[in-house]
Each structure stands twice: as structure tokens, then as C-alpha cells.
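hiii so my PI (J.) wants the whole complex modelled not just the main chain, which honestly fair. so below is everything: two entries, each one labled with what it is. i double checked the lines twice but i was tired so who knows lol
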Amino acid sequence: MTIQKTSMTRRRFGQLATAGIAALTARPAMAQAGTVSFMSFTYAEEPNKPHVQKLLDGFAAAGGKVEAIGSAWGDMQKNILLRQRSRTLPTTAQIQERWMPSLATLPDIVNLDDILGRAKLEAAIDPKILAMGRVNGKTVGLPLITGSVGMVANKEVLAKAGVEVPETLADFKKALIAIRDKVPNSVPYAPATKNVNSIPLDFMIMVWAHGGRIIDETGKVLINSDAGRATLAFMTELMKDRLIAPELDRPDSRRLFGQGACGFYADPPQARGFARAFSGRGEAADAFVLPIKTPVLKAGDTPHSIQWGHLVSAFKGPMMDGPDSPGAKWLNYLISDAAQGTFPPSLSALPVTRSAQALPVVTKDAFFSNWKVASGTPLINEIGIWSNAPELSTILSEEFQAAVLGQKPSDAAIAAMASRMEASMAKRG
Amino acid sequence: MTNSATPATTGTSAATLRVSPLAERGGLKARERRVGWFFLIPALAAFALVILFPFLRALALAFTRSDLQTPEPVFIGLDNFRTILNSPEILGSFVTTAIYVTAVTAGTLVLGLAWALILNQPFRGQKALRALSLIPWVLPSTVTAFIWGWIFNSRFGVLNAVLVSAGAIPFPTAWLSTPGGAMTAIVITKIWFSIPLFMSFFLAGLQSLDREQIEAARVDGAGNIDVLRDHILPHLKPVLLVVIVLGVIGNLQHFDTIYALTGGGPVRATSTLSIEVYRRAFDQWDIGMASAVGLLWVATIMPAAYFYLRQLLKGV
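here's the output for the full assembly
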């Protein structure tokens, strides 16, 4: 009798364990039924979280259900790739435009032409903006906000230093020296010098300003040129003269700028939003945020900025299984006037749809008009378009740091940068 | 009576002999073993799932190309290891790791022992100081990294503030932006929060030291250095061995404060093997290469781990 009771208990234990495991695995799916998930780095940024929340609330008011998952910008790619491996991808995720070629290789990424319709997308969004999310003929990212990475100046800092907005690189350096000497404890110009993911943007802008290129559209590495060498020598001089600072990443530059401790730095139009948050002055900060043309080598040269934007990618799953799925409704909402007329302007960025760009909230905002004039001709990110962009960014940043921190002559660093990039491009095939 | 006879009395083999219907096969010892294995199952399952399976998978990935361009791993034999041998950057990580492990282990050993000797002396507030000494060890390591990050910060750091105000340097220095400065910073940080652990080991060892023997040596004219060399260190030898081996293993594995303080930079000045693996895997998404470097990293830990386990099993 005892034996029988024991074997029954074991069997029951097995049954209970199986039922428990089944319940545990089924529970998340049941809890999330009908809810679209949206992994977002803007949601993880405290100053911008309320703007994303308004977007989610707007979708909820329209009858949808979406749950936001915050993930820091620096961890976003890692989270998506790890979730792909563990098959736990969210329904949708916010993507930086330069990550698109790398993430387009994910097996579970959805071609949005099949979900939203290519004709509809082309009718709503300018092809140049839509191109940010197109890889190999497929739309794998839906543009959410757009703009360009260009130079901004702090008018109050310039006034303290008694300098005007510089047009050429020579004037730029003179302005930086004046700021260093007249604004104590300031970083006159605050390019990223620490984070391998941030350094390439600042360096690229300066290479273009010197009339050079890093990699052309065929994949040929061009950085080992007079312009490339001149750029790195220029940046190294700035570091030596304490006109730029080591240990800076973009968030540090934003804080310095907002707190009046930096004259110039490069950022998307979101710079205004960050200045509002970090100055503690709200919209009053708008008075000192001045978009400027990137200084050029010779007066009359064309200034350039970098094409920039945030996109939303979708991943395979029950929430994204067709044009009528909850996920498709969420994506459609993101490009509606209700969303585009509020969310991008709240981040001081431009909307992506033609109709929203014509809304008064955009056309009557002087900041956007100034930005458009100042950004000159935005060019495509020369590093970000390649699927081996992470490796190229690391190479560029390591050699840049080696030169500006005095570990290597700038010419040697440029030569090493070129040869390592060529090897990376060759490996890529 | 014959019908009710037990099997033993009827000559049935011992193998089928059952004393009672409740008796277990193989006797009580076997039953205990089975129960033991049953209780081990959760731990074994967790070990297999969390350690063994990922390790074997990483082992297999080390022989593949697995990156963003080839999401499905492709077998490439020893190519990753050939690349490592020809890569001055990766080979440099082995040198960086050796410098870091040696400096941290030696520094912690000396300072941990010195602090234990101080706290072993009878003085007022000794117990409170012993308790306070554990604070660096109790703090989360990322908090420790941020504390030291702010101390060494080029613009707002305490170190710069003190040196500039004392007139030692004309303007703030970016300590974390020079290879020597960054390495010094990560070594100091690790030593700072490792001292309490080493100190605790030594303090425990010192409790069994024969004080009369020390007093006798002092009566014979032995100085502090003599007492340390001839009495304390020999007494602490078993503890020293374990502490050194544990320290080497821990420092070879260390990642968080290095990553939080310098991210492996400037350039690659503090890129130890742990940082190298992380950057290969999560900055460049070269999982195959990261696994290969990881495998070699494990190989560097194995001798120390073997020595430690041997010491441990000797004591059993």
C-alpha cells in the first residue's frame, strides 16, 4: 500500500511539474494577448520618456494596445541581436538609421512592403527618407523621425567669448581659442572622443569639411588622402590646444552644451530638446540653441551634414502576421498625422510624412527652418551603410583615439585606419 | 508449513531474496545513492543548462564564422585561431591581461596582508574598523567603478581638484585617456574593493597564530620584519596559496569595473581578455571570433583553477 502510494506521488509530481512548466511558458503569451510590444531607446531617455508615453496613449485612445520596453541606445543593437538568438524579439523596435544594414540580416525582420504596402508608403513618405529603411530592395525600417546631424552653437557662449559664427575652419579654430580663454572650465568644441559608436559621426563631418571622404559608395576606402590626413592632424591639434576634450561621449556633450560649458557640438535637431532638459530652463533655452553651417575649408565650399533618422522595424510573430494585425495597426498609427504631427516635433525632430511636414507645427517653427538652411546638403552616413559597420566604427575610433591622445602620429593612424578598413571590407566580400 | 516457507529455506538464489515487500533493490546503500542522485538532478540540470550547454556551444562556435553577415554559423576549422595568432590587437590583450592580473593580485596581497596585520592588533575601535573595512567589498562593483570614475574624471574629478589647487599640475589632466593612467586607475579600483576579502582571509588565519611564540621571538630580539618573515608568513602559507590562486582566477575573469571605467580604452590600453571577448561579441558581433578568444581565455584560467581544486581536494 505504501509502495503504491509512493509511485502515485511520483506520477502526480511529474504531472504537476509538467503542468507547472506549461503554465509558466503559456502565461506570458496569455498576458500579452493582443498587445503589441515596442522596444524603444527614446523611452529609456528620461527627458524624452513622456513624449513616447503620449505616443502610446494616442494609440490606446485609437483603440490599440502597445507596451513599451525601454532599452538604452548603447544596448539597443545588442538586445535585439540577443533576442533574435533566443527568439524573444518584440513586435516592433526603434532603430537608429545607421544600424539598419546590420539589422536587416536578422532572419525574423519583416519586409514592411508586405504589411503596409509599398505604394502606400511611397505615397506617404518622401523616397529619400524612405531610403533610410530600405535594404536590398526591401523596406525593413519604417521612418519615424528624421533630420540630419549638423553643428549647433551656443549663442550665449559665443557672446561671452565675443566671437561670431565661423564660416571657415580657420575661423572656427580662432573662435574655439577665444572660448577656451574667455569661458572658464568650458570645452570649446565637444565632439565624441570616447565611445566607438559616436566618434565616427564627428570625424565624418570634419572629413567632409576638409573635402575628403572615408569610403565611397562602391566600398573603396578613401581615408588615406591629403584631406583625411589633414582632418586627423586638425583634430589632434585641437586636442593638444585643449579646444576639444578626451573622455567625452554625445550625452556628455549635450549636458555641457545645455549648461553653457560648450560652444559647439554636432547633433540631430533633437539638440534643442536636450538643451531644454539639461539647461533646466525649458523652452527658454531655445534662445541659445543656434543651428549653424558646418565650417568649411575655404569660404564658399558647400557645408554638409549627415542624414539621420529613427526608424521602427517589425519582427515576425502573431502580432505582425498581416496588414490587419495589431502590429500593422501600430505601424499605421506611427505614420498618421496624429502621431507625426506631435511626436517628432516634441523631440525637436522633423516628421517623416509629407502631410505632417506641411503642418503649421513644423512650417511655423523657426528652429526647423534654421536647421534646414544650416544643414546644407545632408549626405548619407559613409560607415553606417555597410553591414560590417560595427567593425568599421571600431577601427576608425581606435585610430582616431590613438592620434588625438598622442599615442600615434596622425599620418600613421590614418594609414593604419585605411589598411584595417580595407581588410574589413575585403573580409565582408 | 512447507508452503509458507521463506525462499531462503527453499533454496531460491540470494539475488531474488527479499526480506520484506518494502525492501529496496540493492539494499539501503543503493537506495541512499538513488535518493542522492535524485536530489542532485536539479543542480545537475541547472549546471547543464546554465554552464555546460553554453560552454559547449561556445566551444563549437569557436570553430565557425558567425557574424552579422553569416548569422548561421559556418564551420571554418582553425581559421579564427590563425587570425588570433596574426592579430597584434588580440595578442596585445593577453599582455594587458597579464599586466593587470599581476599588478592587482600583488597589490591586493600586500595591502590586504598589511591591513589584516593592523586590524589584528588590539586597539580601541578595532571591531568597528574591521566592520567598516568591508564596505568596499559590499558595494556593487559598478558603483565602485563610478566612484573611481568621478575621482579620476578629467573635468570634475577630486584628484584633479586636489592637484590643481595644490599647484602640482597647471590644469586638469585626463587620467583615463593615457594608457598608463587608465591601467593605473583600473588596478587601483580593483585593489580597493578586493582588499577586504583578502584581509578577511588573512585575519582568519592570524587568529590561530601562537602569540606566545611571537612574544618569545621578540624577547629574543626579533624585530617586526623578522617576526613577519619567520613566523607570520610561514603560518599563513596555506592561506596565502589559496588567496593568490583565487585572486588570479578572479582577476583573470574580471570585467565590470574595467568596462565601466574605461571600456577597454583609451584605444586598447585596458582591453583585457574579458573586454576583448565582450567587444568582439557585442560591439562587432563577431560571435565566432569572440568564442575563439573566450576559449583561449578559459585556457589561461585552467592552470590556476586546477591548482586551486588540487589544494581544495587535499584538504578534504
